[in-house]
């Protein structure tokens, strides 16, 4: 029987006081917490399985609240996400919930928001999705390939990255709809994926991600990626999931 191994880790990094990232893998969520040791979960490949990260907007209050709302809603909806349209509607529902919760909380959380990026694994296919600049990569042995679409303006001359996002879930006092990016690819035994917040990809270029993923699998890969981001300064919250499809 084919199965999916998900090895996940979330950490505040070295600069931020709090962790505003959250993560979902199937029914399991990790919200605004700290794990230096990767947790590996195994799921049968059959019922739709959602694995996603959400990165609460820094510099605005309630980022950890928004990211937790999103992953918990995805956890509840995950088993029903069988099509691209299902995924789009789930992301729209997450956006509506962030705005509704912000309104209910009053002025203090009026502009809370979060990015989201993830994948739904189905027998034979994978649906990658995102809003914002958290990322989804396919990780074959011959090099990582980004499946998500960054919602960023072009970086300034001399900069490799930018923290500005052009769309996110919530984040404004008045409701704003989003246009989720959803990409379908084939899925087979042996495939691997990396799903992560920009706390991993901002300090680490793709060739570093690729080198770690060529050498390691599962929990060791997750740990080595986190360690590399920390060694590069750990400038932001770091949340990642290494996903591998295997067959007993």
From TrEMBL:
Record-annotated PPM-type phosphatase domain positions: 3-245
Cross-referenced InterPro entries: PP2C (IPR015655), PPM-type-like_dom_sf (IPR036457), PPM-type_phosphatase-like_dom (IPR001932)
Annotated signal sequence range: none
SUPFAM superfamilies for this protein: PP2C-like
Domain of life: Bacteria
Protein name: Serine/threonine-protein phosphatase
